Amino acid sequence: MSQRIAIIDLGSNTTRLVVYDYEPGYRFHLMDEVREVVRLREGMGNSLALRAAAIERAQQAMRMFASFCRSQGIDEVIMTATSAVRDARNGDSFLARVRAETGWEPRLLSGEEEGYYGALGALNGVGLGEGFVIDLGGGSAQIIEVRAGLPARVVSLPLGALRLSDLFLGYDRAKPAAVESLSQFLAQQLEGVDWFRARPGDRLVALGGTVRNLARIDQATFGFPLELVNGYELAGTNLHEMAGRFWRISQKERLKITGLDSDRADIIQSGALAFAALLEHGGFESLTICQQGLREGLFYQHFLAGQPQPIFDDLRQFSPLNLARKFDFDNVHSRHVTALSLQLFDQLQAAHRLDASYRPLLWAAGMLHDIGVRVDYYSHHTHSAYIIRNSGLPGYTPREVGMIALLAQYHRKGNPKAGELGLLFDEEDQRALPMLAGMLRLAEFLERGRSQVVRAVRCHLDLANGWLQIEALEAGDARMELWEASRNLDVLQRALNLHVELVGGVWLGAGG
């Protein structure tokens, strides 16, 4: 049964309300998000007292959120507060005010809890077997070690972008002496975290608005063709360049930087320097951006409550299925098209010579190829590609999302070409695209009647003579399927550079 939950994260810089519609363990989707910059930590300095103006901004946001939740008929509200309230001497009275005005029971998270939930968001957002997660917010930064796919050690450090701007750099052009003081502070804070060191095979995943902004700036610089940051790889050299440049220019000049949110132009320089220090201390050459974080981690604890750990067993399988369920896909048809596609991929290995890493991309495209029908049947292939490109697929890299979207785009018509997404692809990807699209298209037309009358395919390959026969094994009258499929062999034929013929065969059962 569908449920709605609202999660509110009252951070040191920004507060966000997210609303999820979900069926536990089966499917979910984000219904709404409201974001407000409250700067709760602003002006605290060394007094460690929340200032009157900041309190009023935060309370006004909470009153607005409470009204919104009542109007939307939310089943459950979870509200958390983090670093600023945790550090404030008057944090308890502030939370008492929120409780009285909203009727909620605010939960003040410890640094370790904040890190844990951020790690859950990362593990369910990009997948991570071994390495570290950094969640850098306005007031603090959490470093979480991940081993065997589970959160392990956690440390919370006072390295938030707003805090560092408040204490060291200010909000405009900084002085070299201030940057030196900040650098010394960063080194001192990280000195005791000797376990935060890269091992062979480790990855570093980063969360939070600061690093997402740094990624968008980097993407704008290189003309990145997708509106996605989840899974984006930010090179350390580019991060260090931004960290060395931003503090030298004024806030007005920073406002002109493409990709930078205007409400972060006054603190991005501190966040960039903090990330540069973290990257150097850990010995990493790049970091992977995760769109998710604390709020999503809190949600997953509810959504996956029936599991031993609130982490997807197979994120790369669940993610496409979740998107497909959101659009009420034809499960039987999609799975059969996918099965036929994979049979072609497996049996034609000697002809296409593609790496096995392309197989899960073909699987995902098969499951998602028809979701655009929920928009409109006509041009549904284009709608499917648009949805995939803009929804993203947690657990898949932007390059993989681009490939899956293009396979959906060309599953029924057109000559497969990468277009602007070619910036994501290497030479092998360019070679793979028409081959995979040809397999998916042939499978789609062999399932034209959505009746699974073509139960399987059997390939007879003669590479020496440049010839391939595909036998469609029928369990009934498949004249329509064979007719449609025979008219759509051209893409696969050109991609494989083989003469391809399609013939009907008799399905003798799984054992036959």
How many H/I helical runs?
Answer: 20
Chain-averaged pLDDT: 96
Q: Total domains, how many?
A: 3
Q: Which regions contain 5 or more consecutive residues with pLDDT less than 50?
A: none
* CATH topology (level 3) name of the largest domain: Nucleotidyltransferase, domain 5
In angstroms, what separates the terminal alpha carbons?
A: 42 Å
Q: Write down the overall geometry.
A: elongated
Q: Give me the CATH architecture of the largest domain, please.
A: 2-Layer Sandwich
Report strand order across the widest sheet: 8-7-6-9-11-10
Oligomerization state: single chain
Helix content: 40-55%
- Gyration radius from CA atoms, angstroms: 26 Å
Assign the CATH class of the largest domain. Alpha Beta
Going by CATH, what is the homologous superfamily of the largest domain?
Exopolyphosphatase. Domain 2
Largest sheet: 6 strands, mixed
**Strands, total number:** 14
Strand content: 15-25%
Q: What class do helices, strands and sheet pairing give?
A: alpha/beta
